[in-house]
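Ticket #4471: structure output looks truncated?

Reporter: J.K.
Steps to reproduce: submitted the chain below (241 residues) through the standard prediction queue, then opened the result file.
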Amino acid sequence: MRLPLLISLLATAAFAQPAPAPQPEPKVTLADLEKACAKGDLLSCTDYGFNLENPDPEKAVVVYRAACAKDALPACSNLALMLRDARGAAKNLVEAEKVAKKACDGGNAPGCLHLALVKDAANDFAGATAAYESACKLKVFPACTNHAINVLKGVGAKRDEKRAMELLEKSCGESVKKGVQYPSLRACVVLGQIYDQGVLVAANKDAAKRLYKLACYGGLEEGCERLGTGPKNKNDDGHNH
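Returned output as attached by the reporter:
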């Protein structure tokens, strides 16, 4: 009695239709983002502004300003850097600080980094230190790296070599892990230079090479240059959108 059942099962398997292949998601165009933004989708407004930054920075600033006014915090964060760098609008550190602070106070982690960068540009080094610390606590590792360099130089904070090394080691170690949202492979390069030159620690060329290699294979071209190899890939962009 089992044989017909087995044949029946085999026949069912033989004629079963394969599952349909997953269809690729439709590509979202700039026009799509513009329409969604016009309908009040603030996430689309931020993405729309981001995609306009290079081809039409003036329009990107307009889009970011409007979205930031409606509390789209990533738009405020991105706008701050454009105003700091005079991209798409005249340089305006006062407005840049205002919108970056709005983003940071609202919990946007890159906004805290951008607030620090704006304060650095305004020579408010003590204010930059506080903002770097806030961003570092939120695991924005470029902020940890910049803070470490300032602490090492005694800029905006008391010079503290031990604290600088701790920040760099943490930033490098975390940044090479998979899935880190805001990495800073530059921390590995800075650490490598410290070991390479024997600054703060005994010179260790092997340690320096390992650190440069981590940065290089993570995608930071400077790491490859110091290692003496070509770039592997590039993914050390801390810009958020």
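Triage note (M.O.): checked the attachment and the full token line is present. The chain has a mean pLDDT of 87.
Status: closed, working as intended.
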